[in-house]
Request: fold
Amino acid sequence: MAAALRNAGGVAPRQAADEPTTTDDCRPQGTAEHAEPESIGRRLNLRMVYDFATTSPIDELDFILQAAELNMTASQRSLEGNYGHCLGKALSRPMGRGIMGDNIFSHILSATSSACDARMAGAPIPVMSNSGSGNQGICATNPVAVFARENHNTRTELVRALMLSHLTAIYIKQHLGTLSALCGCVVAATGSACGITYLMGGDYNKVAAAVKNMIANLTGMICDGAKPSCALKLTSGVSTAVLSAMLAMQGECVSSVEGIIDDCVDCSIRNLANRQGGHERNRPLCARHHDAQAPGRRRSIADRKALESHRSRVRAHAPVSVTFRFFPSPLHPSPAIHCGSSD
Reply:
């Protein structure tokens, strides 16, 4: 599957008449160049992922149903015990049904969170992963599988929606590198938003709009380690995926004048990666700290005055040793100031 996508790298993706004119690097004319290594994400774009998932022979894609079988089984078995924070069971109980309702939306949330509950609690239940993460595999699979079941979509539609979901997650993930501050559920939930949009009858433009809606909403959710509360984050991501798909199908899409969203969906994905550190996160923290402290790094007079004022306040109120660290902020040219004291 991945090899097929790589081999398709030399084929120019087809472009709809109502899409903005793009240059060779998939960015609208007049848009700033990407600050991204040439080897990452330059031969793929969302259009190629969409075309591969929706036009490839179905017998080459139906293996993805194994992911649905494994992860939905994990969800069902989780309800037989008490795992993690029992979020999936809470959504299935009378109180959960009374508040959330007994509908497609609540079923998607319950199926996703319950599988995560079991996995994070160490239950001996296998799941299919995505990008090396079981939680991301659950998040990219269960929402799509539940929606297809409740919406009475065909087997073929389910296969293509699952493939679109997983490949979109992989495509976005490659921009983030090996290590990122971004919670993986944001990436996987964006994939499920694409799959759900496809099952709703959406075309490429609707899928791209769903991706933009997701980026505009969940950007900034950090990863603070694998733990039982990951089920909460998966549920937040999946609920946003459903909302983003609904908005996209109604023709609503966050515009390029709002936040980090660009007219080009691939540029928006790169903006997401850049805001979360992207490949910069793969460098050791000490190396980034050293670069920030390099003699050649110039600061404005205002920055230096603010720094001295901050140091004075700290000295006056903290009779302990204080270490100042300077990290370049991705949103502002001047460095953010972080201080920590040792007892």
Summary: The two ends are 55 Å apart (CA to CA).
